[in-house]
Amino acid sequence: MQKVFSSMIKVTLILISLLIIAACGSTGNEAPNDESSLVKTNKQATLTKEQQRKVKQQILNYAKADDDYNALVAKFLRAEAQVSDFDAIVSLYPLTTKYSPYGNVEQVQKLVAFESMEQENWETCLQATNIILDENYTSLAGHYGAMVCHYESGERLTGEYHNTMLDGFMDAILRSGDGQTPSTAFYITSTNDLYAFVQLNAMVVTGQSLVYHEQRPVDVIEVQDPETGQKSTWYFDVTAQFRRGIFDDIESAR
Q1: Of 105, 110, 176, 195, whose CB count within 10 A is highest?
Q2: Strands of the 186-187 sheet, one edge to the other
Q3: Average confidence (pLDDT) over 165-194
Q4: What are the sequence ranges of the domains in the chain?
Q5: From the centroid of its chain, how far is CA 43?
């Protein structure tokens, strides 16, 4: 009995010793485990960032969008475009590197073009419209200015070409909706085109506000016929501008 008791004490002491060694080993390896965990976390963060980058590249494939856009512009210049091409390039333009949600270049050159028209300085007018159309071939103001200034310069055929382009892009907007409700809003890619569209329909803007319809931003534009005084409300889907603004913020944060 005494031998058994003695053996039990020995076993107990061995177990206690093993537990102490294990505890010491755990304490000694704590820093390496933390370091390993940190490395693993950093790798995971890098992987996640790379996945996000690849996703953004899929969404914002500027190279493909630019190539497709340039191919369509070339088709327009060859006078080979179909009705569907007007719709296609309007949808594509906001996805290209040329697109600016605020159309700053277009805004400046539009003022130059219209001031030149008043002064009958057709050469300066055409220089300004060329800059606009180089930045945005879908620009209503750009084609309108080019049409007028080519006509006035005696280049009737080129003026007629831009007249055709202007009608085509106006019709593309009209095909996008009837503008009578938020759910049937006209699709528009810039504020410049919005105001040009209103003016080319012989209306003036008397008020503007922003609403959201099914999470899509919609400009509510109050318009008036200057001859009859009749007022109407037109709705414009401005998703392209808001979406690109968000994408540009993402890109700038990279």
Answers
A1: 110
A2: 186-187, 231-237, 216-224, 204-213
A3: 97
A4: 62-252
A5: 31
